Amino acid sequence: MAPVAESNVVLVTGGAKGVGRGISECFLAHGATVIVCGRETPAELPAVAGRRAEFIACDVRDHAAVEALFATIAERHGRLDVLVNNAGGAPFALADKASPRFHEKIFALNLLAPLHLAQKANALMQQQAGGGSIVFIASISALRPSPGTAAYGAAKAAVLSLVQSLAVEWAPKVRLTAISPGPVLTEHADLHFGDAEGVAAVAATIPLGRLAEPRDIGEACVWLSSPAAAYASGTNLVLHGGGERPAFLAAASANKTS
Fold this sequence. Notes:
Blueprint: E1 9-13, H1 18-29, E2 33-38, E3 47-48, E4 51-52, E5 54-57, H2 63-77, E6 82-85, H3 100-125, E7 132-137, H4 150-169, E8 174-181, H5 189-193, H6 196-204, H7 214-225, E9 235-239, H8 247-251
Parallel strand pairs: 1-2, 1-6, 2-5, 6-7, 7-8, 8-9
Antiparallel strand pairs: 3-4
Protein name: SDR family oxidoreductase
GO molecular function: oxidoreductase activity
Family: Belongs to the short-chain dehydrogenases/reductases (SDR) family.
């Protein structure tokens, strides 16, 4: 893999926990200067081999806070080479029970906030000789039914469309890509999959036999941001361990393998 230059400045939204922490640690390991942002100061910042991420408080849904975030980055570093739009998520809520306000918040966090962040990053990157790279963390929920998180899946599907459009608008200086992870094993896996038995049961449905680790997503972000992926733009990298075995195969009475 082509390395990320040590001079590269990388912003990872929501980069202090979960998938974001894995992304931050991978960029640190590859030599980048990493900035993470979030609403609350984390108890422990991502660190690798004595190198530690910087933290800037920011609610990515707050336009004024985002303006201040990028002003601070410009003042401290004078540049931004990579933005990883990672912050997002949604609690379980059936669509017929969720309120309009709930759905508005899901779209604000998972679609509108990343768009605003990308606009601000692009403004900096267009001024740089080497341009920059923006990676959106989407989801497999954008590509298949997402019962219980319907608005989230729809927002992530919109993100994939957004990436294609921005890749055209902002070329050639700025490259736009997306990564769509399947299930990921984080410290909050129990909220989605239950206890260890539930996690194991979910892993058994994945051809590679395990959930993704945050590092799997992080290394993909590093690659997409590196010179090795210089021709990748407007594309979506699906990381789901081989996908899901079609349910009809288990239900059908023909062509059983055991």
